[in-house]
Design a protein that fits this description.
2 domains; rod-shaped
């Protein structure tokens, strides 16, 4: 009885040791091969598109390589924000041109006329409707 019990214990120990050896060997090979072929990890960065005075115009999510330096990540965020900044600048320029044209007409209008009052009202409305970053 003792011999049978000893034989069962030896067989179960040998089987589990053999199975573990195979797993470790195959796992080492898999890890080694996959690291060589694996692309660098990528991360998401939230780029806040803001003016110098701190007004945030928008935010962009961009995917970058995790191994890049902070300066390279900042440069990529600036490139992603460029269209938003250009659009904001265009809106402000259009508003300035519109208000400038209305003021030119207002100056030429007859003093205390309906046209002068209407133009003054349009100027005030245009300035009030402008985004905060244009004021």
């Amino acid at each position: 009885m003792c011999r049978v019990l000893f034989a069962v214990i030896m067989l179960s120990t040998a089987f589990s040791a053999f199975a573990q050896t195979i797993e470790v060997a195959s796992c080492t090979d898999c890890k080694h091969d996959s690291l060589e072929k694996k692309t660098p990890p990528r991360i998401l960065i939230k780029a806040k598109c803001a003016l110098l005075d701190g007004i945030v115009l928008g935010q962009q999510l961009i995917e970058v390589d995790a191994s890049l330096s902070a300066e390279e990540k900042r440069a990529m965020a600036e490139r992603a924000c460029q269209p938003i900044m250009d659009e904001a600048a265009a809106k402000c320029e259009d508003l300035a041109n519109r208000v400038g044209a209305l003021k030119s007409e207002w100056r030429l209008a007859e003093y205390r006329s309906d046209r002068e009052r209407r133009l003054a009202k349009e100027i005030k409305e245009a300035i009030a409707a402008a985004p905060t970053y244009c004021k």
